[in-house]
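haha ok so turns out i had the wrong file open the whole time. this is the CORRECT one, sorry everyone. sequence first:
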Amino acid sequence: MPDTSHAHSERLSVSWLSWPMPMIGAALMAATVHLGYQGIRSWLPYVVLLPLMAFVLFWAGRAKVKVDDDELWVGDAHLPLEFVGEVEVLDANAKRRALGRDLDPAAFVLHRGWIPTALRVHLTDPDDPTPYWIFSTRSPEKVASLLRQHAQTQPGT
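then structure:
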């Protein structure tokens, strides 16, 4: 079997180019509360809202996608690679359909809107009620090839 230890790992962080608009929005909300008043009302909204928005943006990008030894990790969920079935790469349009009208309510989904591509991984575990996983990734071809490579090396496939 090929060595897939730490074969792929990525954090689904928010792009730095996406930070200015929410930070400007937080500053405008703080300015709305301030409205020229003196005292605590002049500085407290900025001290609270700007760090809070930075925390929200950082927190939104904390999820990881990782393929290592014998598991696929997506956020806090993990799947043994032996239960990986068909793997589909989803471009932006296919992702929109897969998360819309074609979505099975029992599916596991980790979607990040700022990442245009995703993977759909069908599960082969008969005891798992989840039919497939859909998750965002910036490197769908690489992750798909790693998962397919592991599936081909499994005995009985």
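Residues 13 and 60 are 7 Å apart (CA to CA).
again sry for the mixup
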